[in-house]
Amino acid sequence: MSLFTTIKKSIPNTLTCMSLFCGCFAVVCAMNLLFFYAMCFIFVGAVFDFSDGFAARLLNATSPIGKELDSLADQVTFGVAPGFVVYFWTASNFGGSLLPCIAFLITAFSALRLAKFNVDERQTSSFIGLATPANAIFFSSLIAANTSNDMYGFLKESPWYMVTLVVGFSLLLTSELPMFSFKFKHGGFKGNEDKFILIGFAVLAMLSTLFMENVKVYSVIPVIILFYIVVCLFELLKSKKKA
Fold this sequence. Notes:
By secondary structure, this protein is mostly helical. It has helices spanning 3-31, 35-58, 64-94, 104-119, 132-149, 159-173, 193-208, 221-242, and strands at residues 126-128, 178-180. Helix 2 runs antiparallel to helix 5 (132-149) and helix 4 (104-119) runs parallel beside helix 6. It is globular. The N and C termini lie far apart (53 Å).
């Protein structure tokens, strides 16, 4: 095997390891209550996570080791890291009782979700249940927004708001809800309606922050993800009605 071939085949795994590093840094940031930076590392980890699969297909460098490494990295970046973010936010706002430990439901259900994804042959072009990156981005951006500009201030009124979100989203991770991915089979609107609707809503939501005082763009990401879930639920109901 030539040196060029070796380097080419190592690129996807290198990108996966970069995602893993981002997850580790996010954990450290969460432990130091730096929730904005924890969110940033989870975001960057998601970019690397997308890039490794794209690079593997582009370079024809897929391998069984790469598949296993990807799941292990995802568990750290999108399972352990958001669990730590929620734990330390809850402990800092409501005390270090056992209640903040509910956050690690995210970690446990993310592991179940990833294991299910690896053996579920239905999830080639779409998802069954909420993807772990979307779940991690939801919680990290929710807490970053709450911490930086007190948006979603109701979360600090009672710990049970966060507990409800953690339980609900953990169940979504392993649910049978069909959820579309952003793999476009073509550039036309027909057949991609749900994707274009979500993109349009996301753009409008982000633009709206320009007219809101002290509201950052990332503050609307939880709303966008909730809208994504609603669209998927609507599509499911529509398909059942047709059936």
